[in-house]
Amino acid sequence: MNLDTREPVLQTLGVLEAAALLRELTAGLIALTDFDEALLALVRVTRDAVAGVRWCGFTALRAGEPAGVAASDEGLAGLDDLRHGPDSPAMSAIHRREMVLAADLAGEPRWPAWTARARDLGVRGVISAPVDIDDQVIGAINLYAAAPDVLTPQHQLTAMLLAEHAGLLLAAVRDRGRQLTLAGERDASLLHDGVVGQAIGVIMTQRGCPPAEALDVLRTAASSLDIPLREVAERLVRTVSRQRDT
Questions:
Q1: What is the pLDDT of residues 218-228, one digit of tens each?
Q2: DSSP type of residue 72
Q3: 55: closest CA among 37, 74, 41?
Q4: Is the full-model pTM beyond 0.85?
């Protein structure tokens, strides 16, 4: 019996490629706190990992307004930038909330101005998939091919998986960024907060270190002793005061 197993093998390779892409994206974005940096990492990893995709871009909106753009290659950044006009595959994907495919841009009627710019830059095919990030930010991941009819149903599946995974990762990046900002605000208030501020001043004097490092010393001590930060500060200030009084 002579069975043709080429198609299942190709499907298996596609699944493995997608799994490898998602792992690499997770590793690249898991610790990031800057949204723009995360977008750039996303499009570059995607460009390098997906066979047949020559370039990759991302278009982001916040409250309906442009909120960020990233391009794997600087020369194509204008294709994802809404300042050049809202008529594009990315905006179609965002507005329709579904994937958009143009396997061959020759004669493509949906986005005439955008298509002309894309073809001038060497783009011959595009997939745009909507990406839900959080309540404030949405976007689209854009996969570009340098030849017509290169983008296949397997690429559409990859784009769908990529969009879902990227949305989760980018939401986490934004959340970490917000938490970092809040932590910075809390740190700033602690520097001027009574006994904690005094303790920070003591550590700065003793170690010759900046305020942020002194605060880290206090936090490390509180964690090691398993007691509140304020209590550590009070103990330190009392100890120093007793030394001065003797």
A1: 888 888 888 88
A2: S
A3: 74
A4: no
